[in-house]
Specification:
By secondary structure, this protein is an alpha/beta fold. The protein is built from six helices and nine strands.
C-alpha cells in the first residue's frame, strides 16, 4: 500500500525526526506548507499522485549561479514540468541573513534567469530546510507519487562552481528517467555539494 505524505510537522518535531525520514530514499517525504512568490498557499501534499522535485536554491551561491548561468537548471525545469513533474524551487535562506531574498526579489531573479519551476517559494524561517536536513545549495530531492523520497543529494557529479553542468551526469534527470520508466533508481542518494545553506 502506498505510503501517504506525513502530516505537517511542528518545527520541534522536525528537528528531532526529519533527517532520518527525508534523507533516506524509500521513506515518506515530510509534508510542508509555504506561500509561493505570488502569494498562493502551497503544500507538498497538494501534489500527491505526481512526481515532485524539490530544488533548494540561493541566487548568491556560486554553485547555484553556475547551474543557472549555463542554463542547466532551467533546462531540467522545462523538461520535467513538460512531463507533468511538479518542480518546486525553495529559497530557505533565513530572513535574518544578508543573503535573504524577498518573494518579489526571488520572482524577479527567476524571471531574469528564464527559469520554469512550477512553484517558487521563500522559506524565510528556514523551517522546511531544517525539516529536510538540507545542508547546501543546490540540494535536490525527487519524490514519487506515493509520497516517498526516491532520490536525495546533489544535482550532478560536477562538484564545483565552474564545471559544465550540461556535460555532467545529472542525478535528478537519471532518477526521474528511471522511475518514470518503472525502473528502480540506480543511485538513490549522493553527497550534496555547494554553498552552505544560510540558516
Amino acid at each position: 500500500m502506498p505510503l501517504p505524505f506525513l502530516r505537517p510537522f511542528t518545527l520541534a518535531a522536525a528537528l528531532c525526526t526529519a533527517t532520518a525520514l527525508a534523507q533516506t530514499p524509500g521513506q515518506a517525504a515530510p509534508d510542508f506548507a509555504l506561500t509561493d512568490t505570488a502569494g498562493k498557499a502551497v503544500k507538498l501534499s497538494d501534489y500527491r499522485g505526481k512526481y515532485v522535485v524539490l530544488e533548494w536554491t540561493n541566487p548568491d551561491c556560486p554553485f547555484v549561479r553556475n547551474q543557472y548561468n549555463k542554463r542547466s537548471m532551467q533546462a531540467q525545469q522545462k523538461r520535467w514540468t513538460g512531463q507533468d513533474v511538479v518542480w518546486v524551487t525553495i529559497n530557505s535562506t533565513n530572513r535574518i541573513h544578508p543573503e535573504f531574498k524577498t518573494p518579489a526579489a526571488m520572482a524577479s531573479w527567476m524571471k531574469a534567469q528564464e527559469g520554469a519551476p512550477a512553484v517558487l517559494t521563500v522559506d524565510g524561517e528556514s523551517a522546511v530546510a531544517r525539516t529536510y536536513g538540507v545542508k547546501t545549495t543546490p540540494e535536490m530531492y525527487v519524490i514519487d507519487p506515493a509520497g516517498k523520497v526516491v532520490y536525495a543529494g546533489a544535482i550532478d557529479d560536477g562538484r564545483s562552481a565552474r564545471h559544465d553542468p550540461i556535460a555532467a551526469h545529472n542525478f535528478v534527470q537519471a532518477a526521474l528517467t528511471q522511475v518514470k520508466a518503472g525502473q528502480p533508481v540506480a543511485q538513490p542518494s549522493s553527497a550534496p555539494y555547494g554553498c552552505s545553506l544560510k540558516y
